[in-house]
Amino acid sequence: MDIARVGDFTLGWGESLVWDDRRDRLYFVDCAARTLHWLDGGDGPLATLKAPSMVAGIVPTTDGLLVGALEDGLYLIDPDTGAFEPLAAYPDELGGRANDACADLDGNLITGTLNLGPADGSTWWYSAADGWCLVDQDISNTNGPAVAVLDGTMTLVVGDSSAQYWAYDYDPDTGIPSNRREVARPTEEIGRPDGAAIDVEGYYWSAGISAGVLNRWAPDGRLDRSIPLPCSNPTAPVR
Distance between CA 37 and CA 20 in Å, rounded? Predict the structure, then answer.
């Protein structure tokens, strides 16, 4: 595997790497600086948009906008005009602000509580038509949610940075999961989970933030490979 640096910039707390193939654009955020960034064509120049509060998870929409998880709720973000428009306040039961986010294959959002250490947290589904639905009330820090069809079953995988990786059979029409199961348990050598992407073979890639590696998990929870990275604290793979 070839690993090469993109650009010469540095971030205080880089997160939520997202490729928007409609705009040929690579998005990411700097949580520490409360900024949204992007690279047209994936390699520059770096564009920067200041946010009204810390942005964590971001998800592209079909019309060129983004949905972002900010301090007090979800926002629609227009990178071209710099506008941040409130979309939905977080449910009280979420217990704070949300962290990482993804869209399922039907355009609904999966996100959940941000905790920097073990604490009460939960994972949630959001639909523009139906609002919020609880997915799992026992996820301390939602990190690396991803949805794919695995072995013919719609599957949601969630990495909990304070615990392990969970998978669920998933109904995108309701957000209601079933068959919760542990699919992987991180160790000190492979690091805590951060960010995620599922490849075309159904393998789940996750950054091992505390170990400086990129991990690839098989659908059955087997660690397929662990790749050392030339950086500390990797946070977010994207395919």
Answer: 13
